[in-house]
Design goal:
β3, α5 and β4 form a beta-alpha-beta unit. The two termini are about 30 Å apart. The chain is globular, with a radius of gyration of 18 Å. Helix content is about 50%, strand content about 10%. By secondary structure, the protein is mainly alpha-helical. A two-stranded antiparallel sheet has the order 1-2. It has a two-stranded parallel ribbon with strand order 3-4.
């Protein structure tokens, strides 16, 4: 009953309320982001949602668009600004996702929406995480977020979808608030951003380079068909 009928109503109501209450705060960061990033303060990216339907995730931009002499984006650690590090550490960059929740792309609690290029490397069992709406936060986020291994993240997602309850979601919301105030588990140790799933599998020699390249091409085709 909760999962089918009540959860979406609460997602819509709470995200609308949060957007209204936080609107002055959001406007401030839109202005700051536009000045500091010298342009669009928002970052959008294709992510797989419920039933693997691809949607545009909305976040505040944390990295510049600087490129090298060949027109390729510079490494993440070179493009991540002090402002970007701050809003990431406080999770302020995630607040525009309230719009995604309002639209129905996401839920307040659920498996985090990963990249399309992450999804194609998942097993059929791991891809079952896409049978529900992705969340602003979830079981994996309160149990380590980016500081845990990919396999553990995906296992937590599968554990969550087995038993979705109102009480369980409320507990995860409260645990998320605590994590945000502690600024815990923002990234992997020694790294500014976490490795993509495919890069992790390649680096740990779980897959061969040929398969890696094939999967990346599959991800590009999925996005182009959107």
């Amino acid at each position: 009953m909760y999962q089918k009928y009540i959860k979406r109503f609460l997602d819509f109501s709470l995200s609308l309320f949060a957007l209204l209450v936080l609107s002055p705060f959001l406007i401030l960061f839109i202005i700051l982001g536009a000045i500091i990033m010298k342009g669009n303060p928002f970052f959008t990216q294709d992510r797989p949602g419920k039933d693997e339907k691809i949607f545009k995730l909305i976040k505040f931009r944390t990295m510049t668009c600087e490129t090298d002499e060949n027109g390729e984006l510079l490494p993440d650690d070179m493009r991540l600004t002090k402002y970007g590090k701050f809003i990431r550490s406080t999770s302020i960059d995630e607040l525009p996702e309230l719009i995604n929740i309002l639209k129905g792309d996401m839920s307040i609690i659920g498996p985090r929406p990963q990249l399309v290029r992450d999804m194609v490397f998942m097993t059929n069992e791991q891809r079952r995480r896409h049978t529900v709406r992705p969340g602003l936060s979830g079981l994996a986020q309160v149990n380590g977020r980016n500081a845990i291994k990919w396999e553990d993240k995906l296992n937590f997602d599968l554990e969550y979808i087995k038993n979705i309850t109102f009480i369980g979601d409320v507990k995860l919301i409260l645990q998320t608030v605590i994590k945000v105030f502690k600024r815990a588990d923002i990234s992997e140790e020694g790294m500014e951003t976490a490795l993509d799933f495919g890069d992790y599998l390649l680096k740990s020699r779980r897959i061969e380079e040929a398969e890696y390249k094939t999967k990346l091409q599959e991800a590009k085709e999925l996005i182009s068909q959107r």
